[in-house]
Amino acid sequence: MRVLVGEDDASLAEELAHVLRHDNFVVDVAGARDDVHHLGSTEHYDAVVLDLGLYGGDGLGVLHQWRAQGCDVPVLVLTARSTWSDKAAGFEAGADDYLTKPFLPQEVVARLRALIRRSQGHASPRIRCGDLVYDTFSGSFTFKGEIFRLTAFEVRVLAALTLRKNQVVSRAELAEHVYEYDSEANFQSMEVIIGRIRRKIGAHAIETVRGLGYRLCGPDQ
Amino acid sequence: MIRLWRGPVLSLRGRLLIAAGLTIALAVGLTALSTRYLMTQIVTQTLDSRIDSQILALDAALTPQGRLDLQRLRLLPHFQTAPLQWGWRVESPEGRWSGGANLGEEEAAPRQRPAWGQIYTSQMRHGGTVMHARNLRKFLSGQSGAVVLTVAAPEQLITEPMEAALKPAFVALGLMIVVLLAVAYGQLLYSLRPVLDLRRAVASVRDGQQQEVHGQWPRELAPLSEELNGLIRQNASGLENARLHVANLAHGLKTPLATLTLRLARQGADAETQAFVADMARRIDHHLNRARSGAQMLGGRASADVSVIVGRLVRAMQHLHEDRALSFAMDLGAQPKLAVDPADLDEMLGNLLDNACRYARRNVGVSCRVEGSLLALVVEDDGPGIPAHAIEQALTHGTRLDESGQGYGFGLGIVRELAEFYGGSLELTDSLQWNGLSAVLRLPRREVGY
Lengths: 221, 450
Known about the structure:
The structure holds 2 protein chains of 2 kinds. Chain A is built from 8 helices and 14 strands. By secondary structure, chain A is of the alpha/beta class. Chain A has 2 domains: about 1-120, Rossmann fold (3-Layer(aba) Sandwich), CATH 3.40.50.2300; about 125-215, Orthogonal Bundle (Arc Repressor Mutant, subunit A), CATH 1.10.10. A 5-stranded parallel sheet of chain A has the order 2-1-3-6-7, with helices on both faces. In chain A, strands 8-9-10-11 form a 4-stranded antiparallel sheet, covered by helices on one side. The longest helix of chain A has 15 residues, at about 105-120. Chain A is globular and about 50 Å long. By secondary structure, chain B is an alpha+beta fold. Among the domains of chain B are: about 10-160; about 300-450, Heat Shock Protein 90 (2-Layer Sandwich). Helix content of chain B is about 50%, strand content about 20%. Chain B has a 6-stranded antiparallel sheet.
């Protein structure tokens, strides 16, 4: 799951990115208003963590602009402004969730996972695909009722495919969910990761759609 | 400045009315006095000229020796037409002659002896009758002594026509006073109307209906309107700066605290250290909330639309508690308004709704009812409620009954403190509708027309 963190305080952004990466999120960080607006408008993110105080302008203005442009990325507002007037104004501007500073790391991770799950149209926190179950609350997988041990890259790829199960996900999109903005996307290593997952859950679970990408197939029950 | 009136400060309308009344009374009084004087002069002079002609007739009947020739007197035309109430008298060293009404005695001697041969006025009294007399003192040439000729008419001949003429004149003046006062009152209302309009314009700014004092003002009030708008802009700027300062303070204090919280969690800090950070956050929140309330109270008399605020808070709650699939029921009637700052109402209702959403099983309701000058806003849920003995504890600052959820235990305490600041109250009871908690927030209503 790929997340943009828009936070002007470098120390907090670093700590937050650390927490999110630890929970297998792919994290891009920006602190200036224009950078946050540009990345949110041009890159594909599963969610945005947005501080309302950014370098060069107000985060609410960025949110207004995204919504006016038709950008419907889920946004978690993370701010020191804790009045109910601020919260109501945040939701009116188009926020999907609102968290005030200070916050616990598990709180922001759980809120982000719930936001992403709902944005993909999943009402339940557990997404089932045949024998594979993805617990969006904890970010963990089980396979045939057993805890499924995966590497960080494998979790990122499988989470992206599970959230869009029965849909074709392009290699480029998968790469975005595995590698961060300034890293070199490596399609060959992507095939290696897919191969490793196939060996664990079965060769036919992930279908290759020639020229388009990959599709995770399986029934809901 | 010398103050003539020591009582309560008179209104502008009172001052102008008193000034107009005094001016009208003075003008009408002077008119009445001058009219009376002029009429008296005219009537007296008319009578005097008639009396004087009688004196001249008497003088014509006087012989050079100072004797009155009665034969000659009868032949003179004026004496043949003289009214019966009149009287005359001739006093001479040769004798004393009189006719007609008894003249009586002269009331007081003239202060200055009149010149010989000049007719002068005196007043004579006989019994109860006052006579208006004209006299001629004449020196007899070649004789030793003087002759005094007197002709008098009843004073009534002056006073009666005066009364007859002045009575309708004074009634007319009285009517004129009434008409002038009515006109002055109308003029006063017309003149004071811009002042009243300005007062209404300022009130609408204080109520939050207008940002500035708008309107076309007379030349005398235009500078005042500009000064008021300057003050309003200055106040708004100060308020905005105070709010911005609080927001910056919140950002400046809470961002490093958030970093610290994350770093402590990453480094596996013990529970005591994490609790210490949580306590710091609680204290910061407490002081920021107080500073924020202070900044909001600078705004003066305000107006908050309950329907609008409940609507946007419920939408916020639907986002914040999306996973709980709660059902919200709103029954707010016809657009009630409160005399409360909208940001304060956000804070009070936001806390109550958030509490209700946290503990509700499925249903949260918001309704209102009018209780005299107050509006009772009722936020209910179908959650477990609060036992009667724990209610006061729940309303105390910093106390939390349930340690499992988020927050730092200031919500209900802040709501109660803010409600009491506005002269309202917060009451927690059992919900009769859903068997959960019912929070009744009473706040002053904004009067109709504001």
